[in-house]
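User: My instructor asked us to take a sequence, write out its structure as tokens, and then describe one feature of it. I'm not sure where to start. Here is the sequence I was given:
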Amino acid sequence: MPSTLAAFLGACLLVAASPGPSTVLIIKHSLRSRRSGFMTVLGNETGVLTWGLVAAFGLTALLAASELAYGVMRVVGAVVLVGFGVQTLWHARRPAAAGIDAAGGERAKSGPASYRHGLLLNLANPKAAIFAMSFLPQFVPPGAPHLPAMVGLAALWAVFEVGYYGLYVWFVGRIRTVLSRAGVRRRLEQVSGGILLLLGARLALEG
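Assistant: Let's start with the prediction itself. The structure tokens for your sequence are:
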């Protein structure tokens, strides 16, 4: 069991370190405030836990087997990504909307809204569902009860990523003085929006 857990946590680290839309969204919201960034992390990890539990009960196999269901989720995911990208680019056009108020302070982002954004982005991604189905069973120890082991691994995965992405939120908070400069902030918003648009377009065009 200890060697299995060590291998699992190592795999979780590699998964979390791979750049993706969740990473972009977390950094984007962390530019506004630590609270916003951390709530985005919690929303994203609620999605991770949800897909992990769905995989534990074998329901993601239905998604993998149904071309129509996967196609619908793929389109929904692409729309969500493009929507976030367009919203980010629109905010980048206005200094106040990019997170700088008239006094030069931060514009606080609603915690519940940040949580919803993180959750929606994860749940709208069919790749997250398929990945959970293929990732978690590999680490169930031989002879262990399958369902409890899968549920435990899903919970551990989500908790691990809360800590990992929490470091992103902390680091962005540490250098926010530099990042809060209007020109730097606007450029980062533009880059984030462009990446989200490209990821959405790629997801939409995949067969």
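For the description part of your assignment, you could build on this observation: Residues 146-174 form the longest helix (29 residues). Try explaining in your own words what that tells you about the chain.
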